[in-house]
Amino acid sequence: MGQIRLKGITWDHSRGYTPLVATAQRFMELNKDVEIIWHKRSLQDFADKPIGQLAKDFDLLIIDYPWIGYAAETAKLLPLNKYLPEQFLQQQLQASVGASFESYTHQGQTWAIPMDAATPVASYRPDIFQQGNWQLPGTFEDLLALADRGQVILPGIAVDTLMNFYMFCCTLGENPFTQVGQVISEQTGLQALELYKSLISKIDPICFELNPIKVYELMSSTDQYSYCPFAYGYSNYARKGYAAHPIHFTDLVRLNGKPLITTIGGTGLGVSAYCMYKSKAIAYLQYTTSAAVQEALYFETGGQPAHLQAWMSKGTNQATQHFFTRTLPALKRAYLRPRYNGYIYFQDHAGDLIRNYLISGGQPKNVLSELNHLLNTVH
C-alpha cells in the first residue's frame, strides 16, 4: 500500500467508474508510493450536488462543467494551467472534441481537463429497423411520423428537458443567454416550445421519468422502443456483450434543413485545492487524460474518452459500431452552456418549468416569463 493516498469521486455508471478504477490501478503499479481510491455517486448528484464539500472530502473530482465558475470563484479547484506543462495544455486543446476543453476554462484559467466527451445524439435498434424494413428518420417531420408509430422514446427528466429546449433554440438560429436578463427571445422561445410539444405529445409519458441511462436500458432490454432522437450518447450500449440488444448511434435529424444542435456535456477531471499531494494528483490526471491511455486502457474498461485521437481510432470505432466517427459531427457543433458562478441555480430549476408545461399544458409565454424571472433571481 502506498504512503500517499488520494481519494476520487465520480459518477455511478460503467462509463464513469470502472475506467477510473482501471487507470488508478495501473498508475499505482507504476507509482508504488501512491494509493488511489475512487468513490461514486448517482448521476443526479453528479449534475446537482455542490462541489464545495466534495472538494474538501476528495482529492480528484470528476465534474460537470457548469460548476466551473463556482469552483473558480470560491477557489475549490486548482488552476491547472499553473501546474501542468504548457505543451500538455496545448496538446489537450488541439485534441479537444468540440468545445470540451473550452468548457473547463473560466476567467482565463483551466480548472479541469476533459476526461469524457458527450452530447445528445440519435440512437436506434438496428434489428428492429431491419425487421420493419424502416428507414432512419432524416428530418424532424420523419421523426414525428415515427413517433406516431409508438417507436420513439427520449429522456424527459428536468435537466434533460432543459438541454432539449436549448437544442431547439440553437437549431432555430439563436443561442440562449445572448441577451442580458433574457434566456431567449420570445419569438424563438415560443417556436422552440411549440416544436418540443409537437414531438412530446406523441411519446409515452414514461419519458418524463427517464434519464439517458434509463432510456438506453429500456431500448436495449425490451423491444418496446426502437429510436431515440436525442439523448447524451453512451458508447457502452453499442459494444458487444454490454447489453442484451446493442444500440447503434448516429447524427441527429435535420430541422429546417439543418441538423439539430445539441448541448455539449461530458466530464472533466479536476484536482481539489485542498489536496495534500498535488504533484501526484496532477501526475495521475496527466496519465489518465493522455492520448495513449484514453484510446486504450480508459476506453477498453468502459470509458467514453474525451481525446480526439481516441474518437478517430480504428479500434474504438470497430468496438462500438462506429459510435465515435458517426457522432463526432454533433460534438463539433454542440452548444456550450454558461459557466458563470450562479448558473447552476438556474439549471437546477428551469427544467421543471418546461417539463411541467410539456406535461400539463398552459401558456407558453408564461413559461418564458418564468424562465426570465428565474434567470434574474440572485442566489
Give a written overview of the molecule:
- The protein has a 5-stranded mixed sheet, with helices on both faces. It has a 3-stranded antiparallel sheet with strand order 8-7-9.
- It is of the alpha+beta class and 379 residues long.
- The relative contact order is 0.19.
- The longest helix is centred in the last third of the chain and has 18 residues, at 343-360.
- It has 2 domains: 4-118 and 264-333, 3-Layer(aba) Sandwich (D-Maltodextrin-Binding Protein, domain 2), CATH 3.40.190.10; 120-262 and 342-375, D-Maltodextrin-Binding Protein, domain 2 (3-Layer(aba) Sandwich).
- 46% of the residues lie in helices and 13% in strands.
- The model has no long low-confidence stretch (mean pLDDT 96).
- Helix 9 packs across helix 10 (186-200).
Describe the secondary-structure layout.
Elements: E1 4-11, H1 18-30, E2 34-41, H2 43-48, H3 51-57, E3 60-63, H4 68-73, H5 86-94, H6 100-103, E4 105-106, E5 109-110, E6 113-116, E7 120-124, H7 126-132, H8 140-148, H9 158-171, H10 186-200, H11 212-221, E8 227-232, E9 248-250, E10 254-255, E11 258-259, E12 267-271, H12 278-289, H13 291-300, H14 308-312, H15 314-319, H16 323-333, H17 343-360, H18 364-375
Parallel strand pairs: 1-2, 1-3
Antiparallel strand pairs: 3-12, 4-5, 6-12, 7-8, 7-9, 10-11
Helix pairs in contact: 1-13, 9-10, 9-17, 17-18
Family: Belongs to the bacterial solute-binding protein 1 family.
Protein name: Extracellular solute-binding protein
Subcellular location: Periplasm
